[in-house]
Amino acid sequence: MQQINLKAVNFALMFSLALLTAYFTLENTVNTKVNILPGVSTSLPTAALVIISAGIGACGAWFFASWTNKLREQEIKELENTKNRVKDLEIDLSRLKTKQNNILPFMSFSPDKVLSSEKKAA
Description:
mainly alpha; 2 strands; two-stranded antiparallel ribbon; 3 helices
């Protein structure tokens, strides 16, 4: 199965949206009253309102994506720190096992054997 080139799909989507916006702008030149604040109003073409609102929406989406990416980077750093800490603890554990085997080669580090030897002593 052939893999779809996502850059080409993205370009086609953006190009078609730009064409639709241009067509909408040419067809909707009627002025519309816009109330910005109570008592403050202006008149703008409908197409200009759509373009302005799309721009505000795009800026909001960009801000949200940036914020999410920043949070994801922090989570990745925390995960890497945790992995490094686990590796350090594994190294310490293996070093302690080796040290114990060098000191008491006849005992293993298994808790079962330690408990069974304690029961025999009791």
